Amino acid sequence: MKKIVFFAVLIVILGGCSKIGEKNHIALDGKNGEVTAVKTYFSASNKTLKIKSGKSFVLFFTSVDCKACAQAVPYMNYLDEKYSDKFEVIGVMNGDFRLDEGYEILRKKNINFKVISEVKSVEYLSRAVGGIYGVPVFYMYDKNGVMKEKILGLVPQSVLEKSIAALF
Question: DSSP secondary structure string, 29-83?
């Protein structure tokens, strides 16, 4: 019950504190099982999407029923952990889940990175990258918010790691 109240208060607080191009997204953190926020800064004119941490990141678009996405999860867990000082994995999962449902999905799929599933945030991030037409898809961003690479479909971990290493 405390988590639900905290989640509701967090939404109210974060919802009223945004500037143009700035958006707060509620995320479930698979590492510690907590509700967290991911703040993004989008500039259509500069074609950039930054996150508050200032790190390079990947938006990993996925869905609950995608078998290829499930196969990519261990890769994403590994890469998020290995490069945690300068890189983040942010999952963007379709479907709007209650808090308890979201944690159950993360637990069942062994997801240890942050996952955004709230409908408005998923739509916002989908539009920011120009639309999502299939999953899994990985959008690689450098620390300046410049998209460096888009990878559609399941690829070997070495391909993802090479793309991520090129961001630094």
Answer: ETTTTEEEEEEEEEETTTTEEEETT--EEEEEEE-TT-HHHHHHHHHHHHHHHHT
Amino acid (one-letter) located at 129: V
The model's pLDDT over 41-77, given as tens digits with 9 standing for 90+, comes to: 999 888 999 999 999 999 999 999 999 999 999 999 9
Q: How many domains does the chain have?
A: 1
Q: What are the distances in angstroms from CA 138 to CA 16, 57, 102? A: 30, 10, 21
**Any idea what the Cα angle at residue 43 is, between residues 76 and 63, rounded to 5°?**
30
CATH code assigned at 8: 3.40.30.10
Q: What is the pTM of this model?
A: 0.85
